[in-house]
Give the backbone structure.
Amino acid sequence: MSELRLNDAQLAAALADLGTQIAWPRAIDVRSPVLARIEAEPRRTSWWRAAWSPRYGFAPAIVTIAIALVAVLVFSPEARATATDILRLRGVEIFRGPVPPPSPVPSRSPTSGGSIPSATPSLGLGTLVTLDEARARAGYPVVVPTDPALGAPDEVYLRAVANSTAVSFVYATRPAIPMSAQAGVAVLVTEFAGATVDEQFFGKVLDQSTTLEKVTVNGQPGFWIQGTPHFFFYNTVGTIQQETLRLAGNTLIWTQGNLLLRLEAQVDRASALRIAATFR
Amino acid sequence: MEGRPLEQRGESGLVERARRGDQDAYGELVTRYQALAARVAYVITASPSDAEDVAQDAFVKAYYALDRFREGAPFRPWLLRIVANEAKNRTAAAGRRPTVELSAAADRASGETALSPEEAAVAADLRAGLLAAIGRLREEDRLVLSYRYFLDFSESEMADVLGVARGTVKSRLSRAMARLREVYADV
């Protein structure tokens, strides 16, 4: 249609004209809902501010958080620059920061040099068990993804965490799911009881390389985290535990009943949500 | 400050009060910026209802992020960056290619009192063609054009909202114009 050639100035003028004809949305008034939402959950000040603020004082929880953070800084000095904020959910705290170098993998004997060893011992997932043992010892009804793309887990681990037992499923390789360079596995699922993701989302300004998005899985709240690695801190009733995002990949974290579930895999959001919907 | 928009006067005081937990002060900031926030969200999502939801969510997120707001920095670009991120996340989730709507007056070309009916028809065609072409651009190109020509942002505001260096804005804009011209020729 456009034998009509526009020079730069004409094109700019045409675009500016177009801008005057946009059907903008009607005037909105979000003041009341915004204030209602922030009223419902007063803002938490960053721990370093809070620790010095006379309004908050040295509340024990803050001290605990500070100690946990200091521990991270000791292990990962580069975290100092970027662990600048806390995303607080009830039961889950996510500190943004670079992942520390992977735990050193024990050197292998030259004779086994060609084989691909299981990377999972270095992931610190706990004791290798069977699925039946995990079900018997977890202390809660263990749920497993039934997505045919995953099939049965290759390895199941059991590990004590504060007030609960974490069960992890390792899927070493799966077609169409890239293997994590850091962890050497394709998919890692972790679940435990007693922690929940709060409905109220404490917002986070996303940096350019990481997005965090509120999602719904089977009608319950969750978060989709995509991009660069982060630290995870689980707070089950007052005890803070550091967890590193082992696959340094995308993560879906959600609740199902009394369980907190986490899926780490280099898949897109839609695939993660699809897998999450199949946990039974 | 000289030449500063009216909405920015007294702003640092409001921001500081909001940062200390004064919700009335924050409410005032919401009132000042909600229309602009909705427009930014609209050029990204192209959905009026999404734009309102995005604006609301972005204001809530910004409130909880005030701790990290650098004291004395301008609030507007900081807020709009949050709005843009929120809108982009939502658009990515919806998986569609958003194109803003033109007002009914633009379709009818009736507002062109200075133009003959023929000229007005040409103008309406041009708008429709350009809009269709913009709709086919990549998000990066579409947004830089929308910020510049639909929202009338300065280069420095565009840099803030896009999260790029000011020097990058010029080259992005001219690249987007070149792509628009190519696509428009094919429409």
